[in-house]
Every structure is written in structure tokens, then in C-alpha cells.
Amino acid sequence: MQFVELSIPGLLEIQPKRLGDERGYFSEIFRLAEFRNRAGDCDLVQENESLSARVGTVRGLHFQTVPFAQGKLVRCTRGAIFDVAVDLRHDSESYGAWAAVTLSPETGNQLWIPPGFAHGFCTLVPDTIVNYKVTAVYSQPDDKGVAWNDPAIGIEWPAQADPETLSAKDRQQPLLADLPPYFSMKG
Ligand SMILES: Cc1cn([C@H]2C[C@H](O)[C@@H](COP(=O)(O)OP(=O)(O)O[C@H]3O[C@H](C)C(=O)[C@H](O)[C@H]3O)O2)c(=O)[nH]c1=O
């Protein structure tokens, strides 16, 4: 299993090994000890799955606030996504910066997003399924967001991104400039 740090420290793209044979392949997609060794001590306490029927579906940018801040280990099990994270740690050198990877079942790669980041994705094909483990349970009162198209963040979404697919919640997320300092590098 390979771990590659993205342009923002803390974000890790994970590439499990695939052992191929005449039947297909076998792949270990998660080992807690190896994951913790790279991502730090954390417990993955909930697993989520979402299906997005339309190509260009945009979900995000979401995060939960302390004490329910979530780390997310994201993979795409059908279709493909442009998966993006935004640094919301107010004392980080990369505050407001974004980084993205394409996740798909063909590559089998994953993205680790530590607490302190907003997460979102855009589907690149119809009927895309995203599966992700999180380090804190869902807490609706602590479920917050930031505008997907905030020019101060400047995410270069794929051409497929379709604003018509946004949920009512995502159509009215605040701008980065209006976010309280929810997160710090000090945890
Ligand atoms: C996140 C979550 C949601 N829900 C309920 C709340 C709503 O009734 C329904 C849909 O929730 P929402 O519209 O927030 O789902 P997404 O737009 O896919 O949001 C997710 O996608 C972005 C990309 C993320 O990173 C977050 O994990 C998560 O916010 O599921 C739950 O019951 N448990 C949960 O953990």
C-alpha cells in the first residue's frame, strides 16, 4: 500500500496493491496499523455510502465542527469522482487552499482527509458510488459547509460540474470569509 502526500500536508492519496491472477485480483484496501502509522492515531467509527445518479453531481463542501470534526477515508466504488479537500485550519500556511485527486474503482486509489478540512466531490460519470469511513459519528448540529464555488478558494472543478445538482443546503453554504475559525493546526 503506497501513501503519497498531496500538495497540502496531511492529505494522503493511498494506492493499495493489487495481486492479479487469472481470476482477476486481490487487494488489501485497509490495514488499521499501517493507516495509523501514516495518518496518526484515529478510529474509523462510521462508514458512509452515497449514490449520485447524474454526471456532474456536486456534493459539498462539508465538514463537522469540534468535537465531531471528522477525518475521512474516501474511495469510489462505482464510476469516478473529482475528490477535493480545502484546508480550514485558520493558522495553516495553506488556509483556504485546495487539493484534489480523481478516485475510481479502476485505479482503486483512496484519499485521506484529516479533520480540519472541508470535503466535496463532483461525479465524472452517471451512477457513481462513493464510500467513506469517518473518525467521528454524524452530528447534524455540527454539520457545516462552505460554498463549493467560493472564488476565494477557487476550486477548478471539472467541466461536468452541474450546479443544478446541488442540494438545497449546498446552494446556500457560507463563503470562506464568513466562516468562524473552527479549526487550528493544534487540533
Ligand atoms: C453525512 C450524513 C448525512 N446523513 C443524512 C442527512 C440527510 O438526511 C441525508 C443526506 O445528507 P447530506 O445531504 O449532507 O449528504 P451529502 O451531500 O452526501 O453530504 C456528504 O457528502 C460530503 C461530500 C461529505 O464529505 C460529508 O461526509 C457529507 O456531508 O443523510 C446521515 O444520516 N448521516 C451522515 O453521516
Largest beta sheet: strand ordering: 1-2-10-7-12-5
Distance between the termini: 27 Å
Unreliable residue runs: none
Report the radius of gyration as a whole number of Å. Answer: 16 Å
Helix content: under 10%
Count of β-strands: 13
Mean pLDDT: 97
Helix count, per DSSP? Answer: 1
Bound molecule kinds, no repeats: dTDP-4-keto-6-deoxyglucose
Largest sheet: 6 strands, antiparallel
How do the helices and strands follow one another from N- to C-terminus?
EEEEHEEEEEEEEE
Q: How does the overall form come out from the CA principal axes?
A: globular
| Relative strand content | 35-45%
SSE class: mainly beta
Family: Belongs to the dTDP-4-dehydrorhamnose 3,5-epimerase family.
Subunit structure: Homodimer.
Function: Catalyzes the epimerization of the C3' and C5'positions of dTDP-6-deoxy-D-xylo-4-hexulose, forming dTDP-6-deoxy-L-lyxo-4-hexulose.
Keywords: Isomerase
